């Protein structure tokens, strides 16, 4: 039961891991490709990938000399973990907007 | 390959210091203002998140390039108390039009005071979503993880 909750909050609670996860959601990438897209070093990327892999959210395979990472084949688990964080942030956003007094009526541009 | 075990729902709630009608109006009518735009599915950055305010209305993102990407449908439209949406992005991170494969988001609005509302969200039925067995093919197929739905792709016209 708690495994899913842990997956969402623990694995994707870290902003860098979430960034890696979201990049992989757009397509498989190598460690180097991930490092090129993120402001962190290649070893740091590898470390985050190991955590994501242990958590069952991503898997990897060898392509030539490179190791390619992608979201795990059991994609619903990964999707759910992603949504866990999405809803938490979305409701925070909702609360902010709902409690912000309505702005002055916007002027129509002629 | 097949997932039979039920997947626990995501539950969350927020208490907002506005009357129930206003809470419902903002949740539905201003979804674009509060949904964090970094959470999206399409290839392009999000221009707008749209929730059509009626049963069977669409819930979708429109990218800056004008393409639309469906997320689901409105199943229950009961202002200001209840809203049920489907989430039809599956384990391959693609829109699945089959209603039998839809996860469901139930949103309940409860007045806890004249100007206070509790909003409970339960996103469940994840086991109905089809898993990611084809994720590799889908992702490698070219263009990445794009499921720009040509079939639904009538761009909302007349807005500028």
Automatic annotation (TrEMBL), chain A:
The keyword Transcription applies. SMART domains: HTH_ARSR. Residues 1-91 form the HTH arsR-type domain. InterPro entries: ArsR-like_HTH, HTH_ArsR_DNA-bd_dom, HTH_MetalResp_TranReg, WH-like_DNA-bd_sf, WH_DNA-bd_sf. The keyword Ribonucleoprotein does not apply. It comes from the Bacteria. One of its GO terms (molecular function) is DNA binding. Keywords: DNA-binding, Transcription, Transcription regulation. NCBIfam families: HTH_metalloreg. This is Winged helix-turn-helix transcriptional regulator. It comes from Pseudonocardia broussonetiae.
Automatic annotation (TrEMBL), chain B:
InterPro entries: ASHA1/2-like_C, START-like_dom_sf. Gene3D superfamilies: 3.30.530.20. Residues 18-129 form the Activator of Hsp90 ATPase homologue 1/2-like C-terminal domain. SUPFAM superfamilies: Bet v1-like. Belongs to the AHA1 family. This is ATPase.
